Each structure stands twice: as structure tokens, then as C-alpha cells.
Amino acid sequence: MSVAATDAPGSGGAPPPTLAVVVVNWNGRDHLPECIGSLLADGYDPLRIVVVDNASDDDSVRFCRDAFPSVELVIADRNRYWAGGNNLGLRHLSATGGADFTLLLNNDTVVPQGSLARLVEATAREPDAWAATPRICFADEPWRIWYDGGRVGRYSGWVGHQGIRQAAGRRALDERFVEYGTGCALLLSRRALAAVPELDEAYTFYGEDTDYCLRLRAAGGRILHVPRSLILHKVSASVGAWSPRKAYLRSRSHVRLLGRHWRGAARAALWPCQAAYFAGHAAWHLWQGRPAVARAVLTGALDELAGRPAEPPVAPRV
């Protein structure tokens, strides 16, 4: 679906909507200069930046205080992971007046100038949009897409990025509604946060954003994708692209997500599709010479189905 453009907010003398950005950080000192620096250089005004530090043992907090004194720091008592860290940021904003829009943003991202305004303006002028996502490209290959909208298979249970690894120049720039927004860069309106105030902290590693989007849509909201707004993402900067730990946790979270949101006839068709998916996924890793990852894919799914406890993740969501 294409969304028709109207006059942008901020035109005709009207002030632009207020924007807050929540960045969760755990030992990400090396990412903060580019991430926070790009947000400040973007020039959006009025802008609040909230960095939630998940009990880092590097010098992230000291660096933020010294380098970016305008940033609001929320320091967690322990590593609360991605969902818990964002919830701390959202609670901080709620207690201090909030903003018209709140962007949840990974710390391993770079925001090109003008991207914030394009994202906020497109969302503000579309009355059905409760949330929005930008186009996200690989930071080391800015011409190649990582996320260009999200889809969720009603019967297959497949959750995936549209346009992944495709050339950005070959993809349309039309705004459209999508089924899922990645938490790497997810813009939430006041209406969204009133309906679904927080992320589910039962997901400690992956699945939190999909769960949130499904709950948002169940409450009557829609998610707008705005390709003219761009974010660059250092994909898997904290955990190896094919680490067994990452594969294990993704499998667990995916099975948990399916169990919570698929019901009735959709669930009857779901499990055969998912059995084929997990078997194929594991077989592909074996073929690529990654037996430990293949084993982790299956073990994570089986552990979640059996209700076995999992060790906490070694790093925040990436």
C-alpha cells in the first residue's frame, strides 16, 4: 500500500513534533561516538537523547558524560538486556514529560543527516500510523539493504526482513504499511505507547520487537515504513554473525513468539512449516561447515518447547 503525502508538520509556522531517542548501551563505548554524534549532527529540534547504560564495565558512562553533556543518562543496576534497557528509558521519559515520538535505536547505528525529520514527518502526517521504521542499510555496504520493511507469515510463522541484501537503488521509495518493525530503529508515537507501554522482558535476546509489533497491531495500530529515512547498521557488531550463542537464542525466542501469538487454524498449519524451517536452517549451516551453529539452532528450539531454562545472553540484542 502506498501512503499519500500531505503537508509536513513544521511547515506553515507549526513547530515540529518533539522527538526522543532511546539508545541502550552495554560495553558499547566504541559505538557511541558515531551513534550519538550522528544524532546530534542530524539537526532535529526539539530532540532528547536518552542513553540507558546496562551496567557496562567499560568507560561508556564516563565517556558519555564528558563527550555529550546534553545526553540524559539512565544507569541500570545490572544488565537488563535490550527489552529491559529500553523499558528503563521509556519509564524515564514517561516520568519527565515524554515526547510526541520516541525512537528506539541500536547503539551500533549511524543516522545520516535529515533521516530523523523524514521519519517523524511521514509518521505524523499519516493518521493510521502508530509506529514507523526507516530503511536500514549495512554500515559497511551503505548501498545494500538490511531492512526495508518486515513481513510476518500468518500460517508459516516466518518473520523476516523485506529487501535484505538487495541493492537500495533497485527498491521503491514509496511509504507503505508493514507487518513488523525491527527494534534496530523503531519509532513509536504517544498513541502506541499508551496502548502498549513496554516491551516484554521475557525475551532476553531477539523477538522482543516482533512481539511488540504484534501486540501493537492487535491493539489497532499500524506500522509505517519510510524508505526515504535511512539508518546505517553495523550488523552483528557485538556477537559474531553466525555464533552458536546467537543461533540458540534466536531459536528460543522464535519458538516463544510462535507459542504466544499463533492460535487456531494458523497454529495447525504453523508447526509443519516450522519443523521444515528449523531442519532446513540446521542443514544449511552444516553444509556451510558450521556444525556448532546447526546444533544450536535445533537445541534452542527444543529447549524452549521443553521449557528448559536458558542462561542469560552474553551481550545485548544486536
Descriptive report:
- The strands form two sheets. Strands 1, 2, 3, 4, 5, 6, 7, 10, 11 and 12 form a ten-stranded mixed β-sheet that branches. A two-stranded antiparallel ribbon has the order 8-9.
- It folds into two domains: 11-233, Spore Coat Polysaccharide Biosynthesis Protein SpsA, Chain A, CATH 3.90.550; 244-306.
- It has nine helices and twelve strands.
- Helix 7 runs parallel beside helix 9 (291-306).
- 37% of the residues lie in helices and 22% in strands.
- The chain has 318 residues and is of the alpha/beta class.
- The protein is globular and about 55 Å long.
- 43% of the residues are buried.
- The protein has helices spanning 32-42, 60-67, 81-95, 115-124, 190-195, 208-218, 244-261, 264-287, 291-306, and strands at 19-25, 47-53, 72-75, 101-106, 109-110, 129-138, 141-147, 150-152, 159-161, 176-178, 185-189, 222-233.
